[in-house]
């Protein structure tokens, strides 16, 4: 993982070039992140401080019926050429979606607008050139390292090997520290980019459930496929390529949760923390004798959930209530206790699925302790999943997990919390009894990757 130091100035240009932003490395990283660039054999050929030159070859995959480059690919090449030129100025800073990184250290760079003018038909290999004006260097660096958004328009010119101009572009970018895209207690507003990230994560999990193995768990795949949509299925396919075991991990926790729900005597309430696009209420309500489902998530996620569910035809009638919350700001227990339909005295299951690894230790403590106060019935249970610390700090010595974590980092879904003793951790939150099962034991698998993923059931 690349880690920036101070304001980047303690890193020499040569160090930065070698470790973060040289042409072979950027070509490889961008081929991995944007497969269409690999398909057309686009490549970075030169990088200088504030500058980038890339090549868009003339090949079958990049041309149209006239044998000229497709205009959209020229625009795509302009986007990444200008983006790299801008990225060179922020020494030591990894870029989300390209470098392995986490939100705390990375920059998010997006194209805000573009104007491309095509001057001549493109019938040769094309070279895109972008050079940030030297008088902009200090402004860009000073604003970024002061924690401010940078908004700049950069020129990109396309020429043939004979220096004939084929196209000229003006590319408008914004770049800012990724951590600033997340809502905080001081600034709870959700940015469009963060909202997209929330939806993408929920769709990905729905996509994994939609293609679950039928011999491991029974799923209403029609509902899950609808929830995932093409976007979720694509993300799920991409992650399965990085970590083939991910499919079975999601299946294992889905089946484990279903088994727990079926074995709580007289279950009357199910609380889904971070519900996302989980279709469980429609899948298991009748089998569980119609408990009330409380679906908790950010308002923006619940809005998307409502939209998706409204489009499902012939969906079963279920008892469900949506509760808007932000785990980082709200007291989840108090929200539930204030809800007119929630009763802490009856058998209740709280499902905290796929969440602990994305919250800090302190944040998890607050959420889990708050939940312990609403589980008054002796048959009530908490279910959660936790990865071991070695997954987060990169010491598993399991190649597949290392690849998976790197892939999650590139997607901006970095794991920040792991726990080797869930029972001790939950005891600090008010739980008296905890049962822990690894996915390896639950699945009966010899694959060591599953040993780092823990399925946890606790009672107060």
Describe the protein.
With 460 residues, the chain is of the alpha/beta class. It folds into two domains: 13-181, Thiol Ester Dehydrase, Chain A, CATH 3.10.129; 192-459, Vaccinia Virus protein VP39 (Rossmann fold, 3-Layer(aba) Sandwich), CATH 3.40.50.150. The protein is built from 16 helices and 13 strands. The protein has helices at 13-19, 23-33, 35-39, 71-87, 137-145, 192-210, 221-242, 246-262, 280-284, 299-310, 332-338, 361-372, 389-393, 399-410, 422-427, 439-443, and strands at residues 43-48, 51-56, 107-118, 126-131, 150-159, 165-177, 269-273, 292-297, 319-324, 348-352, 381-387, 433-438, 453-459. It has a seven-stranded mixed sheet with strand order 9-8-7-10-11-13-12. Strands 1-2-4-5-6-3 form a six-stranded antiparallel sheet. Strand 1 (43-48) and strand 2 (51-56) form a beta hairpin. Helix 6 (192-210) crosses helix 7. The model is unreliable at 1-6 (pLDDT under 50).
């Amino acid at each position: 993982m690349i880690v920036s130091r101070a304001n980047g100035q303690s890193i020499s240009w040569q160090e930065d070039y070698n470790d973060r932003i040289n042409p072979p490395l950027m070509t490889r990283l961008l081929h991995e992140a944007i497969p269409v660039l690999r398909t057309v054999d686009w490549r970075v050929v030169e990088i200088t401080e504030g500058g980038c030159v890339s090549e868009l070859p003339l090949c079958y995959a990049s041309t149209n019926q006239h044998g000229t480059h497709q205009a959209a690919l020229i625009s795509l090449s302009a986007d990444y050429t200008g983006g790299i030129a801008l990225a060179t100025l922020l020494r030591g800073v990894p870029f989300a979606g390209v470098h392995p990184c986490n939100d705390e250290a990375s920059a998010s760079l997006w194209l805000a607008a573009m104007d491309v003018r095509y001057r001549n038909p493109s019938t040769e290999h094309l070279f895109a050139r972008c050079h940030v004006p030297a008088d902009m260097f200090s402004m860009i660096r000073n604003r970024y390292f002061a924690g401010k958004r940078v908004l700049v328009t950069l020129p990109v010119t396309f020429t043939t090997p004979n220096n004939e101009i084929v196209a000229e572009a003006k590319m408008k970018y914004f770049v800012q520290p990724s951590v600033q895209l997340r809502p905080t207690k001081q600034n709870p507003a959700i940015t469009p980019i963060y909202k997209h990230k929330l939806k993408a994560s929920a769709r990905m999990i729905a996509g994994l459930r939609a293609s679950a193995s039928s011999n491991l768990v029974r799923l209403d795949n029609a509902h899950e496929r609808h929830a995932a949509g093409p976007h979720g299925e694509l993300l799920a396919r991409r992650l399965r390529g990085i970590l083939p075991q991910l499919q079975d991990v999601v299946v294992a926790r889905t089946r484990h949760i279903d088994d727990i729900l079926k074995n709580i005597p007289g279950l009357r309430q199910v609380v889904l923390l971070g519900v996302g696009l989980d279709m469980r209420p429609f899948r298991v309500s009748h089998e569980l004798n119609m408990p009330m489902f409380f679906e908790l998530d950010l308002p923006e996620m619940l809005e998307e959930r409502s939209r998706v569910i409204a489009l499902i035809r012939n969906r079963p009638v279920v008892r469900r209530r949506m509760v808007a919350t932000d785990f980082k700001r709200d007291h989840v227990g108090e929200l539930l206790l204030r809800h007119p339909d929630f009763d802490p005295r009856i058998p209740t299951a709280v499902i905290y699925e796929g969440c602990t690894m994305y919250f800090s230790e302190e944040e998890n403590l607050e959420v889990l302790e708050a939940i312990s106060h609403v589980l008054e019935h002796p048959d009530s249970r908490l279910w959660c999943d936790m990865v071991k610390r070695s997954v987060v700090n990169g010491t598993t010595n399991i190649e597949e997990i290392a690849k998976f974590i790197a892939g999650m980092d590139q997607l901006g879904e970095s794991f920040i919390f792991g726990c080797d003793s869930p029972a001790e951790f939950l005891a600090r939150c008010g739980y008296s009894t905890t049962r822990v099962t690894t996915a390896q034991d639950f699945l009966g698998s010899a694959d060591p990757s599953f040993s780092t993923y823990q399925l946890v059931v606790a009672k107060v």
